[in-house]
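[Discussion] Sanity-checking designs against the backbone

I'm trying to build intuition for which residues belong where. Below is a structure token string of 231 positions. I'd appreciate it if someone posts a full sequence so I can compare it with mine line by line.
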């Protein structure tokens, strides 16, 4: 009787693929040791994607069995310092690459946004679009303003919003990013506007935490509620 192709494939797989070896964790020491391996491995993998587990195990054994290590303390220090320098350079290159990509995307976006009806571009590169005319006072750089706002990246990701908190914010105009300092002085109380702020008028190459990457252009919807509000 002839075997089917499926049966032959199954039979073949049973021969070449060994069964997984069961790991038994019976004692508390085994469980703690295994748990520490998982925790440490998870952290180490963040810095070292490929680990020579055999060499790693030998290093652990040298400490616990109190045998002579294959490297002395000076060699260990030099090795770790070189590794850290390499990681720092890799991170620097990644940040530089991201910063250039953000800068290019921001410039492309702003070039297109400048063509839209109602958008005005100032000498600094700030783009201003009035969506509701104000009728009250117009702030100067030394004034304090009370505003509602919503901030997003050019891909629409929201990173901050006073509307979401349902609480307006007050701050001195000379204490915020240049794009805000300039943009708010173009508004009057009761007015609303959209600001498209190039990276050099926002947080520049440093970005701001995890929310705003290096060289990110920013978009704001701003409502000027009051100039020099009473405390």
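Best answer:
Here's mine. Compare freely.
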């Amino acid at each position: 009787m002839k075997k089917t192709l499926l049966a032959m494939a199954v039979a073949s797989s049973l021969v070449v693929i060994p069964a997984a070896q069961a790991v038994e964790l019976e004692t508390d020491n085994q469980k703690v040791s295994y748990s520490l391996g998982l925790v440490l491995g998870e952290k180490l993998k963040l810095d070292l994607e490929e680990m020579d587990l055999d060499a790693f195990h030998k290093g652990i054994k040298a400490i616990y069995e109190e045998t002579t290590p294959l490297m002395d303390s000076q060699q260990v220090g030099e090795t770790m310092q070189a590794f850290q320098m390499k990681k720092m350079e890799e991170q620097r290159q990644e940040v530089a690459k991201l910063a250039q990509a953000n800068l290019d995307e921001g410039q492309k976006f702003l070039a297109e946004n400048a063509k839209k009806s109602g958008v005005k571009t100032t000498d600094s590169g700030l783009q201003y679009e009035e969506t509701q005319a104000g009728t009250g006072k117009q702030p100067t750089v030394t004034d304090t303003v009370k505003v509602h706002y919503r901030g997003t990246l050019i891909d629409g990701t929201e990173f901050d919003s006073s509307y979401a908190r349902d609480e307006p914010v007050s701050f001195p105009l000379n204490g915020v990013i240049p794009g805000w300092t300039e943009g708010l002085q173009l508004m009057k109380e009761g007015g609303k506007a959209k600001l498209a702020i190039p990276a050099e008028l926002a947080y520049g190459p440093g970005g701001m935490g995890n929310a705003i990457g290096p060289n990110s252009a920013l978009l704001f919807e701003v409502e000027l509620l009051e100039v020099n509000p009473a405390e």
